[in-house]
Amino acid sequence: MLFTLSLVAALLLALLLAKPIKNCPGAFYAVSAVLSLAFALFDFTNAPHFLSAWLLDPFRRGTLGTALFVVVMFTGALEKGSGLRQKLLPIRGFLSIIATILVLCHCVYFGKTYLVRLFTGGAIGGRLSGLQTWAMIFSILMILILLPLGIASFQKIRRRMGAQKWKKLQRWAYLFYGLIYVHIVLLLLPHALTGQAGYALSVAVYSIVFALYLYLRLRRSEKLSRPVKGGCSLAGAAIALAVTLFAVLGCVDAARENNAPLASAAGGEAVLHDGTFTGVGTGYGGPVEVSIVVENGVITEIILGDNVEDPPYLKDAVKLFDDVIEQQTYKVDSVTGATSSSVGLKSAIKKAMEAAAAEQ
Ligand code: HEM
């Protein structure tokens, strides 16, 4: 959902502000840089929910910058005569620079924790999962491509480089676009597979947008023969469809699992045995451990264990512990604004309750 709204905002920004962007790009660079720095470095934990959802998140989660890159990508893939292409082409370079500045907000915001976890092997902030590790390795590669591309988008630098060198550098943009998609799927798919429909939908939208770009870009290419274009587009569409189906079906399956009644040793109503039992779920940052204390068949205490969750989200998510104790079930509502952490905590509690029910 966040990416779809960011895409609409990016297209409106490009179309409605085309003239001021062309006349005074420096002002847009400055505003983007100030906002990106502020949102990446300052703590807005107590910001009202609408502000974090509609202003902070598009910057911090990289969706606004990526949406602007998508506008830049599609401008290059549209047919020569198209009115939209003629409107956007003159400001394409400026939009690339603004997109680069906006995405750096995301890189710093998440880099502060994820790259530190990567480079310290988990000694600081906890170990990354295999998929997160690959996503971080690709994000470093993306930055190494993004910075020269962004710098070469400045007209002065472009003129100094000369057309041939500049065109050669631009070819790296295709690898960069491909890596964005891989980066996103590696990071969002695990959330979708914990039963979070929002993430499954995001993966589907990204897959459709990137497959459509591949099709349009190939269609415009004169170098490739028709069969090659057709084959590549088909392959791209097949990958997008496969990733989308995997995300959606995995999500449905996990949601069914999340809502399945508690399995009990005897197969009837689950009876919890006394003791302390631990379960591990998948939260926002990775594995999250929770222990439950059962006395006289009733959960009397819930203890948070090892985790790599973002503290501001976790602080909210643990509020669901009270509901679990009050209702004696893990099927309680997730805490708004901390969904991924809530889902992780609930699946850990479910596993702990299953262990308590299975106890002989
Ligand atoms: C050091 C560099 C980077 C780091 C540490 C990083 C980290 C992350 C993390 C942790 C997520 C998952 C967020 C979530 O679970 O909601 C994410 C998602 C994402 N990243 Fe990056 N990223 C980096 C570079 C980039 C770059 C260069 C781009 C694009 C040009 C990008 C685009 C995205 C997008 C679009 C998402 C999905 C956001 C959503 O729809 O929720 N990232 N990134």
Give a quick set of tags describing it:
single chain; about 350 residues; mainly alpha; Sufe protein. Chain: A; 2 domains; 3-stranded antiparallel β-sheet; 16 helices; about 70% helix; elongated; binds protoporphyrin IX containing FE
Describe this structure in words.
The chain is mainly alpha-helical and 360 residues long. The protein has two domains: 191 residues, no CATH class; 83 residues, Sufe protein. Chain: A, CATH 3.90.1010. Helices cover 69% and strands 8% of the residues. It has 16 helices and three strands. Strands 1-2-3 form a three-stranded antiparallel sheet. Strand 2 and strand 3 form a beta hairpin. Helix 1 crosses helix 5, helix 5 packs across helix 7 and helix 5 runs parallel beside helix 12. The longest helix is centred in the C-terminal third of the chain and has 34 residues. The radius of gyration is 24 Å and the shape is elongated. The protein starts with a helix and ends with a helix. The mean pLDDT is 87. It binds protoporphyrin IX containing FE. The site of protoporphyrin IX containing FE (HEM) has 26 residues, from helix 1, helix 5, helix 7, helix 8 and helix 11.
